[in-house]
Amino acid sequence: MEEKGLSDSEKKYVSKVKDLASSDAIDRILSSPSAAEPKIFYRDSSGEKSINSRQTLVQQAVVDYNNNNYAVCVIENISPAHIGALGSGLSLEPYFFANHATHVDKERFWEQFTGWSWDSESGIEVAASLASAHIDGMFEYNGLEHGDFQLTSSPNIFRRDVFKRNPYPVQSSTRISYCRANPYLCKSKAHIRRAELTRDSDLFLVDAPLAIENRPKPKESRSRTTCRFRYSQSRGGLPLPQLFSQQSYSLFESFRSLFQHTWHIAFMFNGIPGVLPAHALLYMFSSSIWETNLRFLDSDIKRISFRDLRDPKDSTNDDLHDRREDLEDLKALISETVTWVPPTLPRYYEKLSERRVDGAYSTFGSPIENLRRVRQDADRLQSFLNDTFQLLMSSIAVRDSRSSMEQARRSAWLTQLASLYLPLSVLTGIFGMNLKEINGSSVPFWWSIVVLGILALCTVLTYFGLRGFGSWKEKRDTRKKIHENA
Predict the structure, then answer these.
(1) Residue 369's closest CA among 287, 269, 271, 293?
(2) Which residues pair with 382 in a beta bridge?
(3) Residue 200 falls in which region: left (phi positive, over 0), alpha (psi -120 to 50) or beta
(4) How many angstroms separate the CA atoms of 164 and 376, rounded?
């Protein structure tokens, strides 16, 4: 670990973390200056805070504790300096950071997972003893083929496995670590007063996105990265999507989106001194991300339907097909998520809801129920999208009709312009004949002007005569139809 710029207490704390970490974890720790800088998201009961340094982070955490505020902090790619500052400043357990340095080996990642071992009645009490938790996941980079890219050094302080195993896409491991950062965690439950439970703050550690040099456009150009976690009845794990509004997958941005909703934070601080267990947190996370993605699709589809269809471009049809593909992916993955929910999890949410403190998150519904509602809303949006396709066809027909009318008007103008030159063309043809009576005679020049005037008059009379005859014929046919209908 890089230890420059650390105080003596921070160096001492970092040294403890290194001593507790396994030898394998020490090998994974990078001190490369190319590692990405940490990103920090901090939100307390008054809103999001701007954190520019590790010292500011610790000071803000102390202020929130003294003011009896809850807070959540998400750090992407935590550095040794931040580990030292947080650990020594907030008296965090060194094991938490040491365990974050490790992750499940890729060869054993999909082995049967038994982390959900409690029932709904005892689960809340078990969760109360969880000072921290670690969630292992696997990114799947859909659309990338082996050999089509070059992996750089990991952008994270802690290395993660990156590999390709047929028939699966390129994968990389990740670990989410989180803990309840308050000074009462070290006390026994018997010594925790009810009032003290509100002074909570949760710290989340996530990895930075994988850095890939010269990443090509995937063969399936719209393939998105997915992260799967080993917390499902399915061996394929729980799929957690990226935000549709983001160009690449970022757990940091996903957590930022999650904690923009205050009821999510209230749900986490519901009178339980420990952190939420992994299953409860992940399914709440999944429910929030899917609802955010559905809102994004709803907004984008309605923008196309109400705005872009007024004057559709060639790309409008492609945009609608992209949204249709996104919507189908959303419906399929939500169905997969709901199908393989651990059987005791819905009841766990119900029991947790019964423990609400002082009316906290009174509008709270089970994330499982919310996922089913999102799936139903997606079906309704699908019907709206189908109607939008029909409107697109109508809009294109109207656009083509306008284009045809414009072309007809231009043709009419060209015809009228040509009619102006018709007498002159006839005159040129007459006096251009190779006849003795014309070429060999001394005909005055003004004769050609007289002939031109006569031809022009005949052209005008013929034009208006044909136009009047057409109008008379149309009126006659109309009167005839009225007479027949009468």
Answers:
(1) 287
(2) none
(3) beta
(4) 36
Average the pLDDT over 254-279 and give the result: 81
**Residue 384: partners with Cβ closer than 8 Å, 6 or more residues away:** 301, 302, 305
**209 CB contacts (<8 Å, ≥6 apart)?**
155, 248, 249, 250
326, exposed or middle or buried, with CB in 10 Å at 0-12, 13-18, 19+? buried
pLDDT digits (tens, 9 = 90+) for 206-262: 998 876 654 545 444 567 888 999 888 777 889 999 999 988 899 999 999 999 887
Contact 134, 99 (CB under 8 A): yes
CA geometry: angle 323, 325, 326, nearest 5 deg: 65
Cα separations in angstroms, 59 against 73, 290, 410: 13, 35, 73
pTM: 0.77
- Using alpha carbons, list the distances in angstroms from residue 196 to 139, 271, 356: 38, 10, 16
Highest mean pLDDT (candidates 124-138, 249-263, 339-353, 375-389): 375-389
Using left for φ > 0, alpha for ψ between -120 and 50, and beta otherwise, residue 464 falls in: alpha
What backbone phi and psi angles, to 5 degrees, belong to 43? -140, 130
